[in-house]
């Protein structure tokens, strides 16, 4: 006997960042965050429960996953099994359409797709809010990859109330994310470890206290499609998160000289009339945010920099959905 389902999910880029938890195990965020789904950076996940299997297995892009990644996925599947009253083990596989090791957070798309594929295979039919909360337990940012387009994850404070909703559909605004790749090295401390350190920075309380105000201003600008207002807010928010990272104990330095060069050059491009703003996740690569009409220009300007080895481009993406196997 077996049950299976396959789902696809977009990655997302946060404009107001999630950094630090009030509950590390459940991934209850210290502050609400705001993001855009990335249509062109996707992950497919297939979950196949089988009564004959003795153990869970995980393949990532066709290769057996490292123990730590596999354990994280199997623990997530345990939530699904408990909810469905199912004891069967599963064969799980994920496939991304973007280069591995490009420093693009894959956990958001992976856990959103896994949550939908897992629950569907197990015969559960969750509401979008329940699915988002389930994805959140696997990876906080995955909560925001469940609904469509532009999404807010309200921190909530309990397992049931901490989930993401869409604030605007895909066609609301033709915004682009151009990810300037400056390093493909695997980071030494991933997001999960970083969240656990956030509270050790004296700057984290100031960041968390001021986040709701940035969130509201950013959301209003996003809804008004006002990049000139939104841009400086997302840059400030990213730099505040990195200030917390750099003052954690031990400190986390994700930036390289090429990261800083891109920060500077973005401001000079703007001074020359090109409306583009940066944001940076837990890594050295720089996300350049602009309207689609300026994306070609931004992409060629970024590619011309000696420190940039590649540029990945994406528009606004839809919700996590089931696909035919
Ligand atoms: C810097 O969701 O990757 O990208 O919950 O441990 O998987 P885990 O962390 P994750 O953290 C995302 C951090 C960030 C900012 C953001 O996406 O909001």
In short:
The protein has helices at 67-84, 107-121, 128-138, 191-198, 204-223, 227-246, 257-271, 295-303; strands spanning 2-16, 21-23, 28-29, 33-50, 57-60, 63-64, 89-96, 150-154, 163-168, 175-181, 277-279, 286-291, 310-314, 321-323.
Care to describe what's here?
The protein is 36% helix and 27% strand. With 325 residues, it is α+β, with helices and mostly antiparallel strands. α1 runs parallel beside α2, α2 packs across α3 and α5 runs antiparallel to α6. The longest helix is centred in the middle third of the chain and has 20 residues. The chain is globular, with a radius of gyration of 19 Å. The two termini are 17 Å apart. Strands 1, 4, 5, 6, 7, 8, 9 and 14 form an eight-stranded mixed β-sheet that branches. It has a four-stranded antiparallel β-sheet with strand order 11-12-10-13. It has a two-stranded antiparallel ribbon with strand order 2-3. Ligand DP6 binds next to α2 and α4.
Protein topology:
Elements: E1 2-16, E2 21-23, E3 28-29, E4 33-50, E5 57-60, E6 63-64, H1 67-84, E7 89-96, H2 107-121, H3 128-138, E8 150-154, E9 163-168, E10 175-181, H4 191-198, H5 204-223, H6 227-246, H7 257-271, E11 277-279, E12 286-291, H8 295-303, E13 310-314, E14 321-323
Parallel strand pairs: 5-7
Antiparallel strand pairs: 1-4, 1-14, 2-3, 4-7, 4-8, 5-6, 8-9, 10-12, 10-13, 11-12
Helix pairs in contact: 1-2, 2-3, 5-6
Ligand DP6 binds at residues 14, 17-18, 27, 33, 105, 107-108, 139-141, 191-192, 195, 281-282.
């Amino acid at each position: 006997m077996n049950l299976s389902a396959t789902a696809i999910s977009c990655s997302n880029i946060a404009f107001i960042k999630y950094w630090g938890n009030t509950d590390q195990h459940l991934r209850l965020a210290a502050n609400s965050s705001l993001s855009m789904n990335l249509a062109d950076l996707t992950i497919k996940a297939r979950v196949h429960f089988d009564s004959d299997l003795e153990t869970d297995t995980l393949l990532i892009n066709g290769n057996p996953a490292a123990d730590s990644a596999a354990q994280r996925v199997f623990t997530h599947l345990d939530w699904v099994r408990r909810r469905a009253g199912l004891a069967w083990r599963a064969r799980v596989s994920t496939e991304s359409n973007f280069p591995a090791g490009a420093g693009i957070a894959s956990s958001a798309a992976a856990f959103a797709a896994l949550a939908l594929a897992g629950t569907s295979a197990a015969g559960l039919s969750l509401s979008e809010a329940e699915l988002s909360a389930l994805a959140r337990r696997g990876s906080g940012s995955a909560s925001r990859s469940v609904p469509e387009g532009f999404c807010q994850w309200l921190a909530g404070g309990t397992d049931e109330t901490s989930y993401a909703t869409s604030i605007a559909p895909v066609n609301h605004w033709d915004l682009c994310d151009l990810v300037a790749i400056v390093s493909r090295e695997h980071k030494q401390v991933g997001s999960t470890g970083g969240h656990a350190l956030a509270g050790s920075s004296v700057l984290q309380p100031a960041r968390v206290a001021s986040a709701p105000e940035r969130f509201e201003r950013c959301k209003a600008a996003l809804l008004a499609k006002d990049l000139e207002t939104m841009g400086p807010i997302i840059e400030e928010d990213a730099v505040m998160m990195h200030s917390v990272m750099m003052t954690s104990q031990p400190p986390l330095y994700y930036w390289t000289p090429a990261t800083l060069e891109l920060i500077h050059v973005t401001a000079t491009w703007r001074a020359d009339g090109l409306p583009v703003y940066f944001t940076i996740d837990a890594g050295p690569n720089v996300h350049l945010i602009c309207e689609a009409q300026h994306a070609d220009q931004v992409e060629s300007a970024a590619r011309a920099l000696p420190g940039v080895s590649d540029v990945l481009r994406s528009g606004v993406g839809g919700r996590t959905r089931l696909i035919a196997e």
